[in-house]
Amino acid sequence: MPYAQGAVCAAVEPKAFPLRVEQWFKGNARDLPWRRRRTAYGTVVSEFMLQQTQVVRVCDAWQQFLRRFPTISSLARAPEQDVLAAWAGLGYYRRARHLHAASKAMVALHRGHVPRARHELEALPGIGPYCAGAIASIAFGKREAIVDGNVARVIMRVHGRAVNLTKSTGKRWVWRRAQQYVDAADDPSCANEGLMELGATICTPRLPRCEECPLSALCRARRMGSQQRIPAVRSAPKRMRVHRAAILAESAGWMAQCILPPRGLWARLPFPPMEESGRRLSAAMLAARLGIHKSALRCCGSFVFQTSHREVHFVVWRMDARVAQRLRHAGRDGWFWRPVRSVTKAPSTGAVRQILQCGGRLSRSV
Ligand code: ADE
User: Fold this and answer.
1) Handedness of CA 220, 221, 223, 224 (dihedral sign)
2) Residue 9: what pLDDT?
3) Residue nearest to atom 3 of ligand 1 (CA)
4) By percentage, how much of the chain surpasses pLDDT 70?
5) Which CATH number, 3.90.79.10, 3.40.50.2000, 3.40.50.720, 3.50.50.60, labels domain 240-358?
6) C-alpha of residue 190 to centroid of ligand 1, in Å
7) How is residue 310 annotated by DSSP?
8) CA 309 to ligand 1 center in whole angstroms
9) 16-229: what fold?
10) Over 90: is that where the pLDDT of 366 sits?
11) CA–CA distances in Å: residue 269 to residues 60, 251, 349, 353
């Protein structure tokens, strides 16, 4: 369907849209931990976690995180490595660092409370227009609009219009509609969270369940039979392919580690030492980079790790124990050594777990 195609049906009745969603949400909300006893801090944590991560993966992590850091000030006081460890398994660790920084700002600027105003929320690290609108409306009942992928899809379908969200005119159109929606709501918290829920569970990208949808009677896309074509499908962005050789070097119960650079993927996280390259490194090329003989390296597995923008091709190499011992005693720039047990027991990223699995250091079920 072409973008911004006008619809031919009657205009959507402004009050009916939020009221139907609110009614539906009251009877159909999923039982999610952060909804059981709503707090502003709990909402902040859930909104940070839910950016780019599915609800099912967030449920346990949210509960553990709140047990570990029950208040904003306890989070603000914690060392960064503890916060990153509590984030293990959720990926996109920049969000954890932002949440940590936001907690410090809330202690410094808002006496350890979550601010209520959109502009104050947007001034905190890691909080953009969507997240600020979600926190202000869900936690404080403010009439603030939210637009994420789910919300935009429901709004476009209800209005029977496929706008291009990569263009500012398209974005502005959806945000205006989202503001009209929340302005007409009885309860902004219920209306906004209900809209996200509807997008996540009923008005899904493929095969929307229109028969169960509380909006089906007023949905223009449904009337026109165009719900599958709204929003218009864009070709997926091409992921950049990169190669990393990970080295498992162990000597007498110690394993080599390094901290990744401050910018880029997995910034500042501990990993087994790695060499990055534009194409796959052979044993001889990797050995040359490490200043050792290629016979000291044995390939023990490979896997591909996908992120939103990259496809990382990992090859895992085990280093001969005698050569590792020599490197440990001689010292090597950027490498440090940790007891193997603490490396394998510590919570870590999915990529590190897969590297350790290749080396037989973790069971397959981890
Ligand atoms: N996605 C982001 N925030 C959400 C929420 N509060 N409920 C459901 N899905 C969400």
Assistant:
1) positive
2) 52
3) 47
4) 96
5) 3.90.79.10
6) 11
7) E
8) 23
9) Endonuclease III; domain 1 (1.10.340)
10) no
11) 22, 22, 9, 13
